[in-house]
Write a structure and sequence with these properties.
The chain is of the alpha/beta class. It has 3 helices and 8 strands, in the order βββββαβαβαβ. The protein has a single domain, classed as MTH938-like (Hypothetical Protein Mth938, Chain: A).
Length: 125
Amino acid sequence: MAPPPGASTRRWIEAYGAGRFRITGEVHEGSVIVFPHRIEDWAPRELGDIDAADLAARLSSDGGISLLLLGCGARGAVSAPPAVVAACRNLEIAVEAMDTGAACRTWNVLAAEDRRVAAALIAIA
């Protein structure tokens, strides 16, 4: 998906799969956390690998994030892990869990609206 005309310096998720993401022209191997103006490598390979405290620390370092899109891999989760929800609630960040493809598409829509959103995306093999 190409960024809309006149887009800012925000990150755009152009492709995902085969264990990688192409974000604003750059290829990132493995899971990532996408913020409005930066990308961080992220270790989890599956939902159970998420360290809620580490994720919360990363989210709090950006300040102002109001929504976390949690891309849970090829198949979406019914809900985010309770520890992730609790950690985000303490930061006043809502969490929406879905499959990684849906999270990528949702990211692009919300980024185009200039929303304060982050996406924690587990790579799809």
